[in-house]
Amino acid sequence: MESSDIPQVHGLLAEQGWVMEKAYFDCAFKTDPRGFVVAETPSRKLIGCHGFLAHDPSMASMGLWIVDRESQSERVGHQMFGDLAQRFSAGTNIGTFIWPHNVDRIKDHYGISVLKSYMTWYNYGRIDPDTLKPCTDERFKILPASDVDMADILSYDAEIHQIPREAYIQNWIHHEQSKTYVAMRNNKVCGYGVLRSQDSFNQIAPLYADNKHIAKAIIRHLAKHVPGQTVGFSSPLQNSSAIDFAEANNMMKYGRPLLMIFYKNKIDIDTDRVYAVSSNSFGNC
């Protein structure tokens, strides 16, 4: 895939009804352009796109696997997957989000037994300011990311995500549509969150915090930028504090959970500190 293909990919996403921020796709491609392929007809019409986002040579996140509806019976998706898989070593671990019922399909169709990790739920709605009231003993402070050493933010992110992803986070945080706040306690990062005002909705992604009081304080600062507007975030179902917050704001609408799976080695993250993952589209915590 070349950068000149991006407008056509945006068009394909719109045609197929895939709600995804254009700037997020641009961020992923900028982070790891070698991990993207497109499929075209002989007349050069773009009919598919697939991406592997690698933060580390040993680990790649799979996502954005989309094919034009008229071409879905022609094994276009399988060909793109095969092309990408050859670009990574045989020992590369692959992770992605899927619908839980597809675990058996993967085993039946490909003979692969995947390793299950955590599940997430997409929450969206308006945030009631009453659910963001400060606790009586907030022994931390919230600062804009510009007032914090980026190396400290990246170190905290890697502590939770477990795979350093400097290029990805730099591209994500420094985009003009991003608002990022960092929680500091005893001169150390104890949480951070990013708000993106996207093409069709506002998204908090990611939001990491050492406890629910820090998470709420970060959300309080982020929400001030979009008062009264709908906000979405995907939280691990194992994080009861995140789920309680979503329920208190009537944000857990009808839907299905997503399951994070791995191909070779399961990466266990501390879901109690993950209040929002950074992307479902590219399997990123």
Automatic annotation (TrEMBL):
Domain of life: Eukaryota
InterPro entries: Acyl/Acetyltrans_Enzymes, Acyl_CoA_acyltransferase, GNAT_dom, YitH/HolE_GNAT
PROSITE patterns documented for this protein: GNAT (PS51186)
Domain N-acetyltransferase as annotated: residue spans: 140-265
Any one GO MF annotation of this record: acyltransferase activity, transferring groups other than amino-acyl groups
The protein's name: N-acetyltransferase domain-containing protein
Lineage: Eukaryota, Metazoa, Spiralia, Lophotrochozoa, Mollusca
